[in-house]
Give the backbone structure.
Amino acid sequence: MKIEGKQALWKDYQKEIADDNYFYVRSCIRQSFFPGSETAFLNIMRQDLGKDVYEHPCHTTCTGIGYHSDIVPLETTMTVVARQFALMTEAGYKNYVPSCVTSFGLYTEILDIWHHFPETLAKTRENLKKATGREFQIPENLAHASDIIYKFRKEIAAKAKYKLINKSTNQPIKVVEHIGCHYSKMFPSKGVGGAEYPYVLVGMIEEWGGEVIDYPERRHCCGFGFRQYLVQANRGYSIACSHKKFESMQPFKPDLILTNCPGCPMFLDKWQYAIAEMEGKTYGENGQGIPVFTYEELAGLVLGYNPWDLGVQLHQVSCEPLLDKIGIPYDADKKYEGINGQKLGIPEMPLTLKCC
Amino acid sequence: MIDFGYKIQADRQINLDTTDKDLANFVRKHENSFNICIGCGTCTASCSAGNFTNFNFRKLQLFICRGEIADVKTEIAKCMLCGKCQLACPRGVNTRNVIMTIRKGLEEQL
Amino acid sequence: MAKKVVVIGGGIAGMESSAYLAEMGYDVTLLEKENSLGGHLRNWERLFPTMRLGQEVLDFLKLGIETKVNVIRNANILKINRIDKRFQIELERGASFNADALLITTGYDLFDATKKEEYGYGIYDNVITSAELEKMFMEGKSILTPTGKIPKKIGLIHCVGSRDEKVGHVYCSKVCCVTAVKQAIELKEKLSAVEIYCFYMDMRMYGMHFESLYKEAQEKHAINFIRGRLSEACENQDQSILIKVEDTLAGRPLKLSVDLLVLMVGFIPSKGTKEIGKLMELEFGTNGFYKTKDQHTLTNVSNIPGVFFAGSCTGPKTITNTVTDARAAVTTVASYLEGYNLEIRTKAFFQ
């Protein structure tokens, strides 16, 4: 591998990312899959980096899942997106930051449609006005939340309590990164680093001390792909995609899978359980899985947040082996404690996949 | 083991690193004209058997080359050895002997 | 006094046309921007379809310009002025030449394979170009992968940078299919145990004897030809390259690991072609090569009276085509200088 080759490409794919005053919109599914991640983002932005991030209580789905499942027509999708932009405009913001990669892809696609077919923009304005009385401006800057963390990766590194270093071997933690398909595969120039060798997560991993692994099926879909999963009969296809990735990455012995999309960590995490129970195969060390993290969780960890506050106890694949490698302390007794120390109960252990 | 109501779907991808190319090598060795096919499909278009069954000489040659040989035995049984394809082939592949050599190869390996 | 012709570009077309023009009695100056003549031919060991040495052709071309042609090397053209029907060419170092006619033979460059990001050239060590493979042949060393292994499996990818809208080159480069067949045979001759896979979109074996070379590759060397275009290349743990295509004849996706991946890079208009074109306001065609006045009847004629083209500055050509085109250009230049009016038959000449 010649890193200079990638660096030359990365230079070609730099995008403008606003440096403050963000209008943040949440993902539909992340709060149930990885419930601490978005809170971690807000805390890091506001408390650690001192940035202004605004959340509007009235924002809704972008319809991305419905759109990609052929349920919601494009015109409806554009009007819903226009309503989100109207909320931003009304709140006095210009920098739009979605938490979800599919939302980011959808917003990028719609802005591109409006650019090339101005009549669709005029029609959307009319639809929105009729339906809600609202008006909107197109965001000055559209960046995915992972772009924002990427932008401030050095500031985070400067404040970091932990580095991505295996403290017993003194070697960097080996990380495979997985970028959500909608981040840059549709519009390579809108993603940091482009579509073939995206840099957005690589930049964080490098800056925080880890080592990036490029494995053959890096570009392959995580297995979500919406209709692969939404219909039960298709799930064999979904899990086959994840299976292909695990088989390809396992020889490299990664310590961690890092993701920037709501669906990917869900599928890369939970399918490890299903594969173990279906075929008895596990991909991590000692019968465990390979831990899967969101970039906000990882940023929180290096900044010294309490792992349980980041919600990593809700992962299917146990995170403790990784915490131990880095040397991040945790109180095992408090793993399943809710607010005010309330005991939430301990989940049942899988039959095959070893968990803590 | 748990039955979730679905299985990990089999990969459709041909994995040339792992498929069985012994039969291909056997045929190549004993009937060299097997190599010079260009996949034009004239054989299949002219095939008497192919008009009534799904026998496809072009695909047979191709899948043996790729090492995907699970169905070869049942497939070659459909050939009537009429030799029409041999007349039609623009590259001069000895198609009848290819079939005979495949059969021999399968027998020797069994 | 003999009329003067300045030929710009000392590759095959420039050398061969200079030889004929000089022999016919014109005062010929051949300008070459590099220190040596021969262009890309200098980097090609053996030639398709005969497998003869490129050096033999180069020697032939050199003999033609040895005595009567004024060869100027390291010539960087600064300015070309047109005064009435004459041209004045100024070089960077102050030298200047007059000409009654100009023959442009600025050739092609090879496609920059880093532009096909997903093929991993410049990123994965064991991905090389056809030109780099030829260099290995040229140096006569044993064939090793860039990471130092004797390759057991080699993949050759046709049409890299050709027939590809994504990189802005929609045309066929004409020589890559047969070059792949040639290089596959040479690899097989040098490494008898190697397995070779050529991935093609169409096998364009249009030249006399190309088809028999293709058949030889199949029959004698058991080279595998798979009709499918590379979608992406990735690196395995052992630094071999995992390639993915659709085997379009099987109608199924296919993957294969190769120790060495060779990209058959195509022709693009050369830097010199672009520069001289801009300098003189020559017309370019849609593919970025020079536009000839008529595709069928005025193949060596430019939009400027007295300025002519030869060789691959007007589009991809084989060596045979280039030599033929150079001689055709000579007759066009000579008929212009002698005042023959043969072009006038063509409507395009008046437009």
User: Anything to note?
Assistant: The first strand of chain C starts at residue 4 and ends at 8. The domain at 4-107+270-350 of chain C is CATH 3.50.50.60 (FAD/NAD(P)-binding domain). DSSP finds seven helices and 18 strands in chain C. The CA atoms of residues 197 and 224 of chain C lie 5 Å apart.
